[in-house]
Amino acid sequence: MELLDDSVVPEHAQPVKQQAREFATEEIEPVAEEYFRSGEYPWDVLEAGMDAGLVAQDIGEEYGGRGFDLQQLLAIAEELYRADAGIGLTLMLASFGAEILEDHGTEQQKEEFLRPVAENDQITGLAVSEPESGSDLAGMRTTATKEGDEYVLNGEKYWIGNGVEADWVTLYAKTGDNEQNRYGNYSLFIVPTDTAGYEAEHIPEKMAMRASKQAHITFDDCRIPVENRIGAEGSGFYILAEFFNHGRIAVGGHGLGLAAAAIEAAWSFVHDREAFGRDISEFQSVQHTLAEMRTEFEAARALNWRAARKVENREQSGFWAAMAKTKSTETATMCAEQGMQLHGGRSILTDRRIARVYRDVRVPVIYEGANEVQRNLIYSQSPT
Ligand SMILES: Cc1cc2nc3c(=O)[nH]c(=O)nc-3n(C[C@H](O)[C@H](O)[C@H](O)COP(=O)(O)OP(=O)(O)OC[C@H]3O[C@@H](n4cnc5c(N)ncnc54)[C@H](O)[C@@H]3O)c2cc1C
User: Fold this and answer.
1) Domain co-membership, 208 together with 143
2) Closest listed residue to residue 358, CA positions, set 339, 336, 343
């Protein structure tokens, strides 16, 4: 069964999709269950992904990357997540936020911080969410106070991918206090993780995407030079909003990969299991369930790829990205739920692929903006 076929993938993205498929088959699938069980950081798979030229390669060629565009990134996301979402997240997060630096940083910042990520000598992360605020981007409390030629950082961040492992993170922090324009109060900074006053520890064990690691970071009078600010003071919210439009297309790809995994697992199970003297795939209700899963999957995939083109062309990006993210990630939850039902009691055996998928699908409906927030965006940005 070939669910992630090439028919919706533009020609220029097909070679890297094939490369990601081969990598996922050889390097991710054989170790996925073990990493899920142990919850360890998959350094060896990350390094293999770097050797294969699949990590951090959306960074432009002039800075040492392969310059993948959004459609190439989506193609990779589908393939990696079909094999395993936790490992897929680790590979895709190694350069999370670096695109912001590429689009808005100075040449000096890019040479110092972006190039080592593109060349796979360093990894990074994006620190936005906090213990008390995730959805409300204009409600974050971590502050960056200017003192002479430095910014002094104080506050906490939570859920930050690679917060422990990264060499530097892109930090979103409050630089203003204007109640009339809450959105203009935030700025973005490059923060090397070895700066005094930066402390990070892993958050407690997760039930999903266990081969990825997130951190609780505290900033305690952490001082960084003014030159580490990305873009103008007060531009952070707007830069982030634009960045998330790209990210949400890729997160749609996370959902599509997971949905494909759920359908494959369910399809193969029902053709290999008997009840009442026949194959359970012969029951019409089972066939209808699978038909529904496939239909929803194809609808989500068509939307997601259409949205990728829209975002790439900057046509109502917020609207299309939010729709793609919502539809694809919720198709994944639906397919996983139905796939579990079709597996009967065996669905809850922890070594089953469907059980891993069932847990992992809980994440993309939340990260990069919970789907309720996406619905707010779809409504408010609907072209009229
Ligand atoms: C595995 C994982 C990895 C992550 N990685 C990162 C990372 O690398 N960097 C980073 O900065 N963050 C990261 N996050 C955080 C993620 O972006 C937030 O969890 C997400 O934005 C939701 O924020 P919250 O958890 O604080 O939920 P809250 O904001 O507390 O919201 C809780 C719930 O309230 C409802 N809700 C909230 N606001 C609204 C609204 N306006 N309208 C309707 N309903 C609403 C929704 O149901 C929502 O799920 C990660 C999260 C996970 C789970």
Assistant:
1) yes
2) 336
Percent of the chain with pLDDT over 90: 99
Check which CATH number belongs to the domain holding 326 and give it. Answer: 1.20.140.10
Say how many CA atoms lie within 13 Å of 228 toward its Cβ.
Answer: 23
**Tell me, what's the pLDDT at 37?**
95
Q: Which residue in the list 102, 130, 264, 368 is annotated as catalytic?
A: 368
**Could you identify the residue written with the tokens 């490369």?**
19
Cα maximum dimension of the chain: 80
- How much helix, strand and coil, in percent to the nearest 5, is found in the chain? 55, 15, 30
Query: Could you confirm whether 368 is annotated as catalytic?
Result: yes
Q: What stretches of 203-273 adopt beta strand conformation (E)?
A: 214-225, 229-230
Residue 177 lies in a domain: yes
Q: How many A from CA of 158 to the centre of ligand 1?
A: 10
Strand, coil or helix: 99:
helix
Q: What is the DSSP letter of 10?
A: -
Alpha-carbon separation of residue 354 from 146, 171, 340, 343 (angstroms)? 50, 36, 6, 8
- DSSP assignment letter at 206: P
Predicted confidence band at 21 (pLDDT cuts at 50, 70, 90)? very high
Categorise residue 216: left if φ over 0, alpha if ψ from -120 to 50, beta otherwise: beta
Q: What pTM, to 2 d.p., does this model score?
A: 0.98
Counting from 1 in the atom list of ligand 1, the atom nearest the Cα of 370 is 49
